[in-house]
Design brief:
The protein is mainly beta and about 80 residues long. The chain is about 0% helix and about 55% strand. The chain contains no helices and 6 strands. It has strands spanning about 1-10, 20-25, 30-35, 40, 55-65, 65-75. A 6-stranded antiparallel β-barrel has the order 1-4-3-2-5-6. Strand 3 (about 30-35) and strand 4 (about 40) form a beta hairpin. The chain is globular. About 15% of the residues are buried. The model has no long low-confidence stretch (mean pLDDT about 95).
Length: about 80
């Protein structure tokens, strides 16, 4: 089990227990992931940190002063 965090700008776009699909995008030397359709975005990942799974389950949604963060569990 691997848990990764995604930044979400507005609340109530997903809820705990939802099954989500992610899309991988490439930068010159790293990758980032988006919960589709454009719900939340990850930080940048290096070549050895890439996410293999394309589907995960929302484990938690945390709100702090920076916004909403979706924690997604992947079967890896």
């Amino acid at each position: 089990m691997r848990i990764e965090e995604f930044k979400m700008e507005r609340e109530n776009l997903v809820k705990k227990g939802d099954k989500v699909t992610i899309e991988e995008s490439q930068l010159p030397s790293s990758w980032y992931y988006t919960i589709v359709p454009a719900i939340a975005m990850s930080a940048n990942y290096g070549p050895t940190e890439r996410i293999v799974s394309r589907e995960g389950i929302v484990e938690d949604i945390v709100r702090d002063s920076r916004g909403f963060f979706v924690k997604v569990a992947f079967d890896e």
